[in-house]
Amino acid sequence: METAYFFPLGFSTLSFSWPKYVCVFLSVVWGSWFDHVKGWWKKKDSHPVLYIFYEDIMKVRSLQQDPKCEIRKIMEFLGKNLKEDVLDKIVYNTSFDIMKKNPMTNYLNEITMNHNLSPFLRKGIIGDWKTQFTEAQNKQFNEYYEKNMADTSLSFCMEP
């Protein structure tokens, strides 16, 4: 939800305050995020779909474990076998700091995006939503989330 708020800010002169955006998100003006996410989650039962969660990648890196484990999941899914030096390059080039500096991944040369308002790649941390949500908004969102995600096995990590 937080990403969906900040990303369009970089492309637009329109501005929503955070409190107004929370209300807009929960009233599903653009369609339900929950329906979208759950619809794709169900596809795993009938199609070969691999789900990789950013939070899982960041946890591995923050615990200084081998970040190649997530890359290996993708390799196995695709039926590929890459050499260690290629994996090392992938790990390096997919680190947040390197991607943030890369114009190809951070839209640095995109003239329609105002990085002063909101860069495409902002902070790269888990749990930054806590700096945006008030206690009341958090409570409201949690209730809405529980209600709308109750019928799925999908869960998201929202804490570091």
Structural summary, described in words:
Keywords: Membrane, Transferase, Transmembrane, Transmembrane helix. The chain crosses the membrane at residues 16-34. InterPro entries: P-loop_NTPase, Sulfotransferase_dom. This is Sulfotransferase. This protein has 160 residues and is mainly alpha-helical. It has a single domain (2-149), classed as Rossmann fold (3-Layer(aba) Sandwich), CATH 3.40.50.300. Helices cover 52% and strands 0% of the residues. The chain is globular. The two termini are 17 Å apart.
Structural features:
160 residues; mainly alpha; Rossmann fold; 52% helix; disordered N terminus
The pLDDT mean sits at: 77
Question: Mind telling me the CATH superfamily name?
Answer: P-loop containing nucleotide triphosphate hydrolases
The beta-strand count equals 0
Please tell me the total number of domains: 1
The proportion of residues in beta strands is under 5%
**Which blocks of ≥5 consecutive residues have pLDDT under 50?**
1-11
- CATH C-level class is Alpha Beta
Number of helices: 9
- Report the biggest beta sheet as strand number plus sense, adding barrel if it closes: none
Q: Would you tell me which CATH topology applies?
A: Rossmann fold
Can you write the helix and strand succession as a string? HHHHHHHHH
